[in-house]
Design a protein that fits this description.
With 501 residues, the protein is an alpha/beta fold. The protein has one domain: Amidase signature (AS) domain (Amidase signature (AS) enzymes, Alpha-Beta Complex). It has helices spanning 7-23, 69-78, 83-101, 110-125, 168-175, 213-220, 237-243, 277-287, 320-335, 348-370, 383-393, 397-418, 451-456, 485-500, and strands spanning 104-107, 137-141, 179-184, 226-231, 246-249, 269-274, 307-311, 339-343, 423-427, 460-467, 473-479. Strands 1-3-2-4-6-5-10-11-9-7-8 form an eleven-stranded mixed β-sheet, with helices on both faces. α9 links the parallel β7 (307-311) and β8. The termini are far apart.
Length: 501
């Protein structure tokens, strides 16, 4: 068992979190987050956005793809782009980049994937097209069940686990005609903000972020046109930012969460990645089975006159190169007619509180889940996983519930703040991709701006906004109120359009 993470830092983080919980002034009438009426995520009442008087141009991917999901969807459906050609391009990317970057735990047999693509082409020729993602190659994080594929959480503990059923989100993708190409690497059991066994596609000496690092690499390199992942504290947005793709964490519960190897039952979000905002919206149309909302309609909405707040605390200690690139996002929204103002809430204490409380809640729930593995827990590949679960197992029920009560106070205050604005904007990560040999210094740093929003269930999207001087991507994160996913996508599309001009 080995891991580069400084284990004393893990222990210190838990001790600091428990001290914060003990000192937090919890009011007598506060209930834990999962018992509160606001815990059901109230909706903000706002006027609908008007349509644009023009159509926004289709955006090219910021990352290293030559083909977007939206372009492939249109080409396959009108017969101008065979699904077999789309699949061959993805497989070629896998052949070229997988040995160096290690994005996949498992890739489905080439013959099976090409036959599935050929079947999609036949359905087009026969006029029996099935679903809005017909023939589209999608990669899946090695936590979500895909029938006939391994589901190992990138851990020796589950090395022999094969699934006979699909997770709810995978059922939706397959019903829409998507072709699942394989399972992507994650930090072991998603218990980390890095993916140490994989490499960043822009600089192979650097970490791709985590825990959904493999999914981000797959999209960034064209190994897939979209990817499924999970986001418990920061696991979609951090790798999306570090790898230069769009990462979308929907409102908590919007996408079915069954069939997932659990990290934290009250924080786990099923989420996804794509090369651009349009691709992410197309995927969300499929992944949200109950709202009956056309998320792609948000791409043509006029955001002029909307108000966006930039928490100054989210820039504290940020790398100057990240701040410079983030300035592109601020300018882009302003050029779209959005009023962008600096705000003092959430504070640095709010961000820190979410990091520490989120650590306790997520790891305590993970420790309870992992008891089912019994003696197999001796097989963890990374010491930091065993260390986190061991520390969490010593947290008292009182401390866990106090953290849940503090969580509800945080949610209430952020709900009031987001009601004053249409969205909040901040760097997704305060630093660019760190060296793989240096990740032990980033145990909490990479996720600092992200955890708050998973902790309280608000929808968030990370959009590439620029580059550092040494060629590393930087992400800007937009946050909206609960169930304001359409408004969030409208702002992200406007931002992306301006950044692409």
């Amino acid at each position: 068992m080995s891991d580069p993470t400084n284990l004393s830092a893990v222990r210190a983080s838990f001790r600091t979190a428990l001290a914060q919980i003990e000192a937090y002034p919890v009011a007598l009438d506060w209930r834990p987050a999962f018992m509160s009426p606001l815990g059901a995520l109230s909706r903000i009442q706002r006027a609908p956005l008007p349509d644009l008087s023009y159509e926004r141009p289709a955006r090219k991917p910021f990352a290293g793809q030559s083909l977007t999901l939206a372009t492939a969807v249109r080409g396959i459906r009108n017969g101008s782009l065979p699904a077999v050609a789309v699949m061959e391009q993805a497989l070629d990317a896998i052949d070229r980049r997988q040995p160096e970057l290690n994005a996949f735990v498992y890739v489905a047999p080439r013959t099976e994937l090409l036959e599935a693509a050929a079947a999609a082409d036949r359905s087009v020729r026969d006029g029996k097209m099935r679903g809005p993602l017909l023939g589209i190659p999608i990669a899946v994080k090695d936590l979500l069940a895909v029938a006939g594929m391994p589901n190992t959480a990138s851990s020796p503990v589950l090395a022999d686990r094969m699934e006979s059923n699909d997770a709810g989100s995978i059922q939706l993708l397959k019903a829409a005609g998507a072709i699942i190409t394989g399972k992507t690497q994650t930090h072991e059991f998603a218990l980390g903000v890095t993916t140490p066994q994989s490499r960043n596609p822009w600089d192979a000496t650097r970490d791709p972020g985590g825990s959904s690092g493999g999914s981000a690499i797959a999209v960034a390199t064209g190994m897939s046109l979209g990817a499924m992942a999970t986001d418990t504290r920061a696991s979609v947005r951090v790798p999306a930012s570090l790898c230069g793709v769009v990462g979308y964490k929907p409102t908590f519960g919007l996408v079915p969460g069954d069939g997932v190897i659990m990290l934290s039952w009250s924080l786990d979000h099923v989420a996804h990645m794509a090369a651009n905002v349009e691709d992410a919206a197309i995927m969300l149309n499929v992944l949200d089975p109950t709202s009956h909302v056309d998320y792609t309609s948000a791409l043509s909405k006029n955001v002029r006159g909307l108000r966006v707040g930039v928490p100054t605390a989210a820039l504290q200690g940020a790398d100057p190169d990240v701040v410079t690139a983030f300035g592109n996002a601020v300018l882009g929204l302003r050029e779209s007619g959005v009023t962008v103002v600096e705000i003092d809430t959430p504070t640095e204490d709010d961000f820190d509180l979410a990091v520490l409380m989120g650590l306790v809640v997520s790891r305590c729930e993970a420790a309870a889940y992992h008891t089912a593995f019994g003696e197999r827990r001796s097989q963890y590949a990374t010491a930091v996983v065993a260390e986190q679960l061991d520390e969490a197992s010593h947290v008292s029920a009182v401390a866990y519930l106090q953290a849940q009560r503090a969580r509800e106070d945080l949610r209430r205050r952020m709900f009031e703040q987001i009601g004053l604005f249409d969205a909040l904007l901040m760097p997704t990560t305060r630093v660019a991709a760190p060296k793989s040999t240096d990740v032990d210094n980033y145990f909490l740093v990479l996720s600092q701006n992200c955890i708050l929003w998973s902790f309280i269930g608000f929808p968030v999207i990370s959009v590439p906004c620029g580059w550092t001087p040494n060629g590393l991507p930087v992400g800007a994160q937009l946050v909206a109120g609960p169930f304001e996913d359409q408004r969030l996508l409208a702002l992200a599309a406007a931002l992306e359009t301006k950044l692409g001009e």
